[in-house]
Amino acid sequence: MIETFSPEETFQLGQRLGEQAKPGEVYTLVGDLGVGKTVLTQGIAKGLLIEEPICSPTFTIVQVYEEGRMPFYHFDVYRIGDIEEMDEIGYEDYFYGQGLTMIEWANLIEEILPEHYLEIRIEKDLQKGFDYRRITMQEI
Ligand code: ADP
Ligand code: MG
């Protein structure tokens, strides 16, 4: 379990994850709206040496970044209506490809997640302050 006390610290944690990431890995990100999923993802992109700005791919489901140390496949499945939409975009080419896959709101597509992935959970605890975040990572 890791605790951060500012967006910068969460970004730095993401950066370390991005520096250590290996091709073919899948990370899932679970946490409420506004908790810091995009901040962490931006750090990961920095760690992968991606210069392009990362925004939430809310209307496209997946955003692909090819310029870094390895391809980065950033999914946000928050607005997915039907799991068939994942088939239509050919999700398997990403999940089982040679890049890093990162999936925001992965709990919505649980049935198609790969056998192994790193689950990253971000939570607030307002009693510990507005900018406090508890980040837990679990190998599934
Ligand atoms: P999400 O993608 O989960 O909806 P965002 O990353 O877009 O959330 O937004 C998180 C917001 O919370 C940002 O405005 C950020 O500045 C703020 N914030 C405050 N403290 C932290 C922290 N410790 N870690 C990450 N974000 C934080
Ligand atoms: Mg977001």
How many domains is the backbone divided into?
1
Q: How would you describe the shape? A: globular
Topology as H/E string? EHEHEEHHEEE
**Hetero groups bound?**
adenosine-5'-diphosphate, magnesium ion
State the major sheet.
7 strands, mixed
Radius of gyration: 14 Å
CATH architectural name = 3-Layer(aba) Sandwich
Q: How many β strands by DSSP?
A: 7
Q: How are strands sequenced across the largest beta sheet?
A: 1-7-6-2-5-4-3
Name the structural class. alpha/beta
CATH class: Alpha Beta
The helix count comes to 4
| Residue-averaged pLDDT | 94
Q: Would you kindly provide a written description of the structure presented here, covering whatever features stand out?
A:
This protein is α/β, with parallel strands linked by helices. It has helices at residues 7-20, 37-47, 84-88, 91-95; strands spanning 2-4, 26-30, 62-65, 72-76, 100-104, 118-124, 133-139. The chain has a single domain (2-139), classed as P-loop containing nucleotide triphosphate hydrolases (Rossmann fold), CATH 3.40.50. A hairpin with an 8-residue loop joins β6 and β7. The two termini are 16 Å apart. 34% of the residues are buried. The protein binds adenosine-5'-diphosphate and magnesium ion. The site of magnesium ion has 4 residues, from α2. Adenosine-5'-diphosphate binds next to α1 and α2.
